[in-house]
Automatic annotation (TrEMBL), chain A:
Belongs to the class I-like SAM-binding methyltransferase superfamily. BUD23/WBSCR22 family. It is found in: Cytoplasm; Nucleus. Residues 54-126 form the Methyltransferase type domain. The keyword Nuclease does not apply. InterPro entries: Bud23-like, Bud23_C, Methyltransf_11, SAM-dependent_MTases_sf. SUPFAM superfamilies: S-adenosyl-L-methionine-dependent methyltransferases. One of its GO terms (cellular component) is nucleolus. It comes from Crepidotus variabilis. Pfam families: Methyltransf_11 (PF08241), WBS_methylT (PF12589). This is S-adenosyl-L-methionine-dependent methyltransferase. One of its GO terms (molecular function) is rRNA (guanine) methyltransferase activity. Residues 262-282 are annotated as: Disordered. GO terms for biological process: rRNA (guanine-N7)-methylation.
Automatic annotation (TrEMBL), chain B:
PANTHER family: MULTIFUNCTIONAL METHYLTRANSFERASE SUBUNIT TRM112-LIKE PROTEIN (PTHR12773:SF0), UPF0315 PROTEIN-RELATED (PTHR12773). InterPro entries: Trm112, Trm112-like. Belongs to the TRM112 family. This is Multifunctional methyltransferase subunit TRM112-like protein. Interacts with TRM9. GO terms for molecular function: protein heterodimerization activity. It comes from the Eukaryota. One of its GO terms (biological process) is tRNA methylation. It comes from Crepidotus variabilis.
């Protein structure tokens, strides 16, 4: 199956059924959780200081719940109404907006102490119509410039996304830099195929010397998240028993009977040795 | 779930609508009061970001007159309590917000404002 962002625009892809499925999937929940915690870590907010955050592409509030737990106040924007509906049902604390981030934000300058975005930016890389305002560079430009002005100085924006090529990363970072952001790409577990995660870590202000782009995590991912299903597979196997051979004694007798009826010569006689396995003798 | 805290940050983002586009004006609204956890540090930290006049005007329009017209120099507990109530506990559930400049209407349904723009309004 191809990537979701290639199948349909987000507000259509995440319709009622897909929004429910996405939110109830425990694997999705776990991944979103981990990435939200990692994004908060990269955000590096001063401890014990309440902050007002922006969740870009908040969806059904999986990441918002963690912001609630951590005691942050937040506002979230998303383009899929069905996802926001699920978020309402889940009673997240933040303010929700139905908003196309490619159209730019209307927030006043300096509104937010930080912003996170989990698995969203790749959705901006497809043009839905041929209108000039729907080309990916235009939408990215609009997104980053308005986001930059909405952020407090100094602050950080952490955007996790799934690029499908280096060109996409190039495009996104160059537009972000033009919009006035510092910072760059942080890659966690760069050598792992599954655990590899790309974060765009954007810095607002701070003169460069005070704010450094953090290091990505190295090595392998922790092992506890692997091979959870082995036991279940074992159980399934024992339930159905050992698979029966198709060419058993009955089958052989049936075939021989058939050949005799057709008048074939030299069909071996039936005996107690028919269909038995030969002894392993040397 | 539009609270006044986000309303106070929100300006119109339609094309060429750059002046006089704040604050968005509430119309035909239904309110809901939901209690929230009081956090004085957050409020103190957030005070410099507020557009005070817009906040007080909107609060009065929604029927809450507990805030003084001028932002006070000294903050006491009573003031913070009423600020907390206005910012975080009043939720606008239904209605609309209108830009004072370009008159674009952002409808609010189920507590979620629809901020989508038509193609010709995108900057």
């Amino acid at each position: 199956m191809s990537r979701p962002e290639l199948q349909a625009p987000p507000e259509i892809y995440y319709g009622d059924t897909e929004a429910k499925k996405y939110t109830q999937n425990t694997r999705n929940q776990q991944i979103q959780r981990d990435m939200t915690y990692r994004a908060l870590e990269l955000l590096n907010l001063p401890p014990d200081q309440p902050a007002f955050l922006l969740d870009i592409g908040c969806g059904s509030g999986l990441s918002g719940e963690i912001l609630d737990e951590e005691g942050y106040l937040w506002a979230g924007v998303d383009i899929a109404p069905s996802m926001l509906e699920v978020a309402l049902e889940r009673e997240v604390e933040g303010d929700l907006f139905l908003h196309d981030i490619g159209q730019g934000f209307g927030f006043r300058p300096g509104s937010f102490d930080g912003a996170i975005s989990i698995s969203v930016l790749q959705w901006l890389l497809n043009a839905e119509t041929s209108h000039p305002t729907s080309s990916p560079p235009h939408r990215l430009h609009r997104f980053f410039t308005t986001l930059h002005s909405a952020m407090r100085n100094p602050s950080r924006v952490i955007l996790q996304f799934y690029p499908s090529s280096d060109d996409q990363i190039q495009l996104i970072t160059s537009i972000a830099q033009k919009a006035g952001f510092g910072g760059g790409i942080v890659v966690d577990y760069p050598n792992s195929k599954k655990a590899k995660k790309v974060f765009l870590c954007l810095l607002v202000g701070g003169g460069g010397s005070q704010q450094q782009v953090p290091q990505g995590l190295q090595g392998d991912e922790e092992h506890d998240s692997k091979a959870v299903f082995e036991k279940r597979r074992e159980r399934m196997k024992s339930k159905h028993g050992k698979r029966k051979s198709v060419k058993d004694r009955d089958w052989i007798l049936k075939k021989k009977e058939l050949y005799r009826k057709r008048g074939k010569e030299d069909v071996p006689n039936d005996s107690k040795y028919t269909g038995r396995k030969r002894k392993t003798q040397f | 779930m539009v609270r006044l805290i986000t309303h106070n940050l929100l300006a119109c983002h339609a094309k060429d609508c750059n002046t006089n586009n704040f604050p968005l004006e509430f119309k035909d609204i239904q309110l809901e009061i939901r209690e929230a956890e009081f956090n004085s540090d957050f409020l103190k930290g957030f005070m410099p970001k507020l557009e005070w006049k817009a906040l007080v005007d909107t609060a009065r329009q929604l029927g809450d007159t507990s805030l003084p017209l001028e932002q006070p120099e000294m903050v006491d507990d009573g003031f913070l309590k009423s600020l907390h109530h206005v910012l975080l506990e009043i939720h606008v559930e239904e209605g609309s917000m209108t830009c004072p400049n370009c008159k674009h209407v952002y409808p609010i349904l189920n507590g979620i404002p629809n901020m989508l723009l038509a193609e010709h309004e995108i900057g």
